[in-house]
Amino acid sequence: MARKETAAEAANPGRLKQIALTYKMTRKADPKIGLVLAAVGIVVFGVLLGIGFLIGHPVYLGILGLLLAFLAMAVVFGRRAERAAFGQMEGQPGAAAAVLDNIGRGWTTTPAVAMNRSQDVVHRAVGKAGIVLVAEGNPNRVKTLLAAEKKKMNRIVADVPVHDVIVGTGEGQVELKKLRTTMLKFPRVLTGPQVTATNDRLRALGDLMSNMPLPKGPMPKGMRMPRGGGPKAR
Which residues span the membrane (predicted)? Predict the structure, then answer.
C-alpha cells in the first residue's frame, strides 16, 4: 500500500510538469490560451452559480459549477493544444507518419513504403478499412508515387480495398489535423483475421526504410535517394 502511494506521489509531479510544458508550448502558438481558459471557467461557474441562487441551492450548484468549469477548461485546453501541435507539425517531413503512429488500436502503420529523390514519401496504414496510402510532399510528384504503390497493392492484395490520401492544404488534399478523422471515416470492410492476413502478406514485401542503409533518427537534409526508387515486389 505504501509503495502504491509513493509511486502515485512520484507520478503526480511528472504529470503536472508535463501539463505545464504543454501549456507553454501551446501558448507560443496560441497566445490567448490563458484568457480563453479563464473565460470558459468563469462563464461555466457563473452560469451554474446563478442557477443555484435562482433555485435556492447556491452551494450545491456552486460546487457542481466549479467541477464543470475545470472539466470545460480541460476539454478546451486539450483541443487548442492539439491544434497548436498540428500547426507546428504542418509541412514538416514525417508529420503524417507521426499522426498515423497515434491513430489508435486496430491500425498497423508502416512509414516510408515509397520515396523519391525529392523526399516525397508515401506511408501505409492497414486496418479494417483496408489499406490506406498516405502521401506527403509535392502534390504533383506524390501522385506518381501513389499510383505506383497502389498498383503494387492491387497486385499483391487484390481482394483488399486501397484508399489514398494526400496530406496538404490544397484542393483535394487532407489537412494534417484532419488526417486521423479522415482515416476513421473510411468504411470498415475487413474482419480482424483478414487484417492480420493482409499485414502478413505485406510484411513479406518488406518496406523501403528496412531495405535501405539509412541512419536512425531524423532524415538528413539533402539526402538523395538511389536510382531505382525502392524495393521490388517479390
Answer: 33-53, 59-78
